């Protein structure tokens, strides 16, 4: 009786993905929880110091909600374009994937640029982080978020370059993309909290 041919395990099959890639995503969730603690601490510090002006300006005097609203719209739109990019990746449409992630990168870069312009303007007006405890807490919180967005932009570029290679669409690549997706959407949630708690409540 002839022996049946044994099929080699399919690279990137369900078992391989479940046993080797799921821990990566789980580990990234753990990292995001530590980031929640970091931002929670910064929000708590801002809440404590939000009225410590030391004779300097309040948020109502220096915040421009129009510009901040534009930043918010840009970052939220970048989450939508990233979602389209993720869908293209699952469909293995390289052109669409690169296009949507390219748009996401440009939107994120615009967000960082607007944030830097806001910081530059405030410092030029003498309202830098050394002006008061309120401004120190503000700059620390918002700049930490901006640094995370900048890190995400570098990560987007790395994933776009990797998608051009032979490792594209493998379970390992898709796992990295999932982690990046979690990170990018997490930053959107944090920014909504910043917009509401830092800007809106300071102006009202």
What would your notes on this structure say?
- The chain has a domain at 70-203: Cytochrome c oxidase, subunit III, four-helix bundle (Four Helix Bundle (Hemerythrin (Met), subunit A), Up-down Bundle), CATH 1.20.120.80.
- Helix content is 78%, strand content 0%.
- The chain has seven helices and no strands.
- α2 runs antiparallel to α6 and α6 runs antiparallel to α7 (171-203).
- The longest helix is centred in the C-terminal third of the chain and has 33 residues, at 171-203.
- The chain is elongated and about 60 Å long.
- The relative contact order is 0.16.
List key phrases describing it:
membrane, 204 residues, single chain, Four Helix Bundle (Hemerythrin (Met), subunit A), 78% helix, transport, cytochrome bo3 ubiquinol oxidase activity, transmembrane helix, mainly alpha, transmembrane
The fourth-level CATH homologous superfamily of the domain at 70-203 is Cytochrome c oxidase, subunit III, four-helix bundle
Distance between the termini: 83 Å
**Average of per-residue pLDDT values:** 89
Shape descriptor reads: elongated
Count of β-strands: 0
What radius of gyration results from the CA coordinates? Answer: 21 Å
Largest sheet: none
| Distinct helical segment count | 7
Give the class from helix and strand content and strand pairing.
mainly alpha
**What is the architecture of the domain at 70-203 at the second tier of CATH?**
Up-down Bundle
- The helix content, as a percent range, equals over 70%
Give the helices and strands as they follow along the chain: HHHHHHH
Unreliable stretches (pLDDT < 50, length at least 5) are 1-20
β-sheet strand percentage: under 5%
Give the class-level CATH name of the domain at 70-203.
Mainly Alpha
CATH-derived topology of the domain at 70-203: Four Helix Bundle (Hemerythrin (Met), subunit A)
Subcellular location: Cell membrane
Family: Belongs to the cytochrome c oxidase subunit 3 family.
Pfam family, one: COX3
Organism: Brytella acorum
């Amino acid at each position: 009786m002839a022996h049946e041919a044994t099929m080699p395990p399919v690279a990137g099959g369900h078992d391989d993905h479940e046993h080797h890639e799921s821990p990566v995503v789980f580990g990234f969730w753990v990292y995001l929880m530590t980031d929640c603690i970091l931002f929670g601490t910064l929000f708590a510090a801002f809440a404590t110091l939000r009225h410590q002006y030391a004779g300097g300006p309040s948020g109502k005097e220096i915040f421009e909600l129009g510009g901040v609203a534009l930043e918010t719209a840009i970052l939220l739109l970048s989450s939508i374009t990233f979602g389209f990019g993720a869908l293209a990746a699952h469909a293995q449409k390289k052109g669409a994937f690169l296009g949507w992630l390219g748009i996401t990168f440009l939107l994120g870069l615009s967000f960082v640029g607007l944030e830097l312009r806001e910081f530059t303007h405030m410092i030029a007006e003498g309202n830098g982080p050394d002006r008061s405890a309120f401004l120190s807490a503000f700059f620390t919180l918002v700049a930490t978020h901006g640094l995370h967005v900048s890190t995400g932009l570098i990560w987007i570029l790395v994933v776009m370059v990797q998608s051009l290679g032979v490792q594209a669409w493998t379970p390992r690549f898709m796992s990295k993309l999932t982690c990046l997706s979690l990170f990018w959407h997490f930053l959107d949630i944090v920014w909504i909290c910043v917009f509401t708690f830092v800007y809106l409540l300071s102006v009202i």
